[in-house]
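Amino Acid Chain and Its Fold in Token Form
===========================================
Scope: a single protein chain, as residues and as a discrete description of its fold.
Amino acid sequence: labelled as such and written in the usual single-letter residue code.
Position: the record begins directly beneath this header, with no further notes in between.
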Amino acid sequence: MTKSLLLYGDSNTHGTMPMSEPGAMGRFAPRHRWTSLLAEDLSDWQVIPEGHPGRTTVHDDPIEGPHRNGLTILPAILESHRPLDVVALMLGTNDLKHRFSVNAADIACAIERLVRVIRASGAGPMGGAPGVLIIAPPPIREVGPLAGIFAGGAAKSQHLGAELGAMAMRNGLPFVDLGGKVAVSDIDGIHYEAGAAPVIAALVADAVRAHF
């Protein structure tokens, strides 16, 4: 029976291209997205990309809209795709925006709250709990047109991998840290260049095979 994997993330799961100006809407073609490459690699899985640009962990965005709140929409996403064998969570970058005033430890606690929702959802096979994979995004940089929005976020992001790794360990969850494996673009300091896609896909595929 084919297993299913939901990739729950933000613009870097959506495939958003680095932005040379605020509000740019560029998106990599499907063949250049890490989610598509992962689906090719995990050919015996149903891979479901669910990336929403601007998605936060648990915050209503006062500027970009409350629909960016990853906690609010998560139950509906889980129900619409159930049964799900595994949910991969790759969030936290948008929480680094200055407007949210949270640090890496706060972000890890917020993702832990999402884990609790997934485990209690009954969205797994036979009404059970889906497995969960935690993916830490790489540190950001304050460059380009998004620098002001993420002011102060670069220093905080240096601690995100460690905080998410600790959270994953205390919850008994597999963990992939993209820090040191891929880097953000020099153009906007947030999104990835096309060359990151195969690296991310390979790391996630290895984790899925090893743990699920």
User: Anything to note?
Assistant: The mean pLDDT is 97. The chain is about 35% helix and 15% strand.
